[in-house]
Amino acid sequence: MKDKLERFIRDNRDAFDTEVPQEAIWRKIRQKLVGSGERKAINLRRHFMLATAIAVILLIASVTAFQFYNSHKIQREKMNMAQADENYTRLELQYTSIIEEKRTEIERFKGNDPVLYRDFSADLNHLDQSCRELKGQLPVTPNPEILLNAILRNLQLQTDLLTRQLQIIKSVKTSKDHERIRI
């Protein structure tokens, strides 16, 4: 049926083209075309403005969330550093008091063997100087945690050294006492 209709229109096309629509009809068609084009443009602008507003809101929300997360992260890091500083201070105080006790104990034997005391003091002064240098670098270091661990390790080495020195002093004293007893 479609083929018959198309053939009929093609055969009688000249008869159909004799009628021309009135000018008023063309005006209405033009107005509708022009009016719908403006509406589409207005609708596109509205959609574009809405999309832009949504993008700006998302951007602001993202930046705000990022800043919020970072500020809390920095606060957590500061709290962790404060706790680490507190632990460090406590450990440093413990080591320092042990070192002072052991130094005082070694000084009592100073008169018995001054050469041995001088050698022991030189070793200990070397470690103590290293500790002071590490503490001097602390304000400018980018990673203070590593430096604090190094300082604590140095203090631990000082206590170990003093403990060994005391053991040597006691063994020397014991051997001297045994010699006196033999004589």
Structural summary, described in words:
With 183 residues, the chain is mainly α. The chain has one domain. Helices cover 89% and strands 0% of the residues. The chain has helices at residues 2-11, 13-16, 23-107, 114-137, 144-182. Helix 3 runs parallel beside helix 5 and helix 4 (114-137) runs antiparallel to helix 5. The longest helix is centred in the middle third of the chain and has 85 residues, at 23-107. The radius of gyration is 47 Å and the shape is rod-shaped. The termini are far apart.
Question: Would you summarize the structure shown here?
Answer:
By secondary structure, the protein is mostly helical.
Whole-number total of structural domains:
1
Give the distance, in angstroms, between the N- and C-terminal Cα atoms: 143 Å
- Give the number of helices: 5
Low-confidence stretches: none
Q: Helix proportion of residues, in percent? A: over 70%
The secondary-structure class comes to: mainly alpha
Radius of gyration: 47 Å
The string of secondary-structure elements, in order, is HHHHH
How would the global form be characterised?
rod-shaped
Largest sheet: none
- Annotation, overall tally of beta strands: 0
The overall pLDDT, averaged over residues, is: 80
